[in-house]
Design a protein that fits this description.
The protein has about 280 residues and is an alpha+beta fold. It has helices at about 5-10, 15-25, 35-50, 70, 85-95, 95-105, 135; strands at about 25-30, 75, 110-120, 125-130, 145-150, 160, 175, 185, 195-200, 205-210, 215, 230-235, 240, 250, 255, 260. It has a six-stranded antiparallel β-sheet with strand order 1-10-5-12-3-2. Strand 14 and strand 15 form a beta hairpin. The chain binds 2-oxoglutaric acid.
Length: about 280
């Protein structure tokens, strides 16, 4: 790890600095985007949901029974569940002007494509380094992530690590990840000469990163600190294609939008059939 939190932070109200940093590094952090009351509401709604009915939104088949992540599965696309409080929160925040303002400064007018919530309880494995556009396959431009810290997220509890500058590389076919450390199977190594920066985020801070930027996280090594995060992925409104599972996209006014489906061989060749993030 070679850089610090301060090298990632950019003020939200400086669009020129946001764009310059994004062009250079493909990653930047904006502090205090959401306030403490909003973060408390998010945390308590998702904890209530996972305790009351984790299967309603969980990708529970990802891990073996007995794995702590089977009790706390990541929730995929909660914004598609208006019948649940977590769904209403995710649907509201995916078009929140404070987040969309930064997204728009970085990639122009955008659609929301994905929401996810990670609980990452103490001892849980992380997610090996990867590139998001391997999954979303948005075209002709890549996707953008807005990763919202719901807890203090640092090295000890498996906060996100990102490789600045790696956004300039192609999306590549992953190799096999270490199953002791990662609950997902694909691993993309940082390009030669580049290394990962460990983020250190307070609740309400948001990390924005490019869909080709290599990023991931290590296990939560604490005994008592969850590492919860609410994550959105966006694509430019100029996109012509995306993997089918990400539709409908969500416009800033809340309308549901459909564009073309990504076809053809992915970076792993012709047999590649795509995968959700
Ligand atoms: O939070 C993590 O550990 C991984 C999240 C991630 O890969 C993403 O937001 O795209």
């Amino acid at each position: 790890m070679t850089a610090t939190h301060h090298e990632l932070a950019v003020p939200a109200d400086d669009p020129v600095a946001l764009r310059q940093r994004y062009a250079r590094d493909g990653v930047l952090q904006v502090d205090n985007v959401l306030g403490p009351d909003e973060i408390d509401e998010i945390r308590s709604a998702f904890m209530h949901q996972v305790q009351a009915d984790r299967e309603a939104l969980g990708a529970i088949q990802e891990v073996a029974e007995g794995d702590i992540l089977a009790r706390y599965p990541r929730f995929m696309q909660p914004h598609r569940r208006p019948d649940l409080l977590v769904g209403q929160i995710a649907r509201r925040l995916i078009t929140d002007p404070r987040i969309l303002e930064v997204v728009t400064a970085l990639i122009g007018p955008a659609y929301g494509a994905q929401s996810m919530f990670y609980f990452k309880p103490p001892t849980a494995r992380g997610q090996a380094m990867h590139q998001d556009n391997y999954f979303l396959r948005s075209h002709p431009e890549t996707c953008l992530a807005a990763w919202i810290a719901v807890d203090r997220c640092d090295a000890a509890n498996g906060g996100l690590a990102v490789v600045p500058g790696s956004h300039t590389m192609e999306v590549v076919c992953p190799e096999e990840a270490d199953a002791e450390e990662s609950f997902t199977r694909g691993l993309v190594r940082p390009p030669a000469g580049m290394s990962a920066v460990q983020t250190d985020m307070q609740p309400g801070d948001v990390l924005f990163f490019h869909g080709s930027a290599v990023h991931g996280s290590l296990p939560n090594t604490t005994t008592d600190r969850f590492r919860r995060s609410l994550i959105f992925h966006y694509v430019p409104q100029a996109s012509t294609e995306i993997s089918k599972g990400y539709m409908p996209l969500i416009a800033p006014d809340g309308q549901e939008i459909r564009i073309g489906e990504a076809h053809g061989g992915g970076p792993c060749g012709d047999g590649w059939e795509g995968a959700m993030h």
